[in-house]
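If it is no trouble, can you show me the amino acids of a protein and the C-alpha cells describing how it folds?
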Amino acid sequence: MAHDFYIMNIRTRKMASFFGYADGVMYKAFDAQEHDRGCSGDGWQGRVDKGKTKAALAFATKYFDNMNYLDPKRMDDIKKFVKDMEQDEDNDIYAICFE
C-alpha cells in the first residue's frame, strides 16, 4: 500500500498524480489529514473548485521543493498540471482522490 494522490479536471479530463507520502504534503495541501490512514489514503474522492485547487497545489509544490526530497522529480507531474491549469476555465471543477 502507498499514498497515492490523483487529480483530474472534470471538463477536460486532464489528470496528474503524485505517488508517495513526502511528509503528507497532499493531505496538508488540501486540508485532508483525516484521509491519511498511515500506510495509505482511505480512498476518499471529492471535488474542488479552481481557486482552492490552485492554492493547494501551489502550497504542495513549494512545500515539496523546500523539503529537499530524495527524488526531486517526484512532483513533476503535478507541476505540469499546475502550468496547464492556466488554460483551464475559471469555473472548472477538479476531482481529487487519496488512495
Q: What stands out?
A: The mean pLDDT is 96. Helices lie at 25-29, 50-66, 76-85. The chain has three helices and four strands.
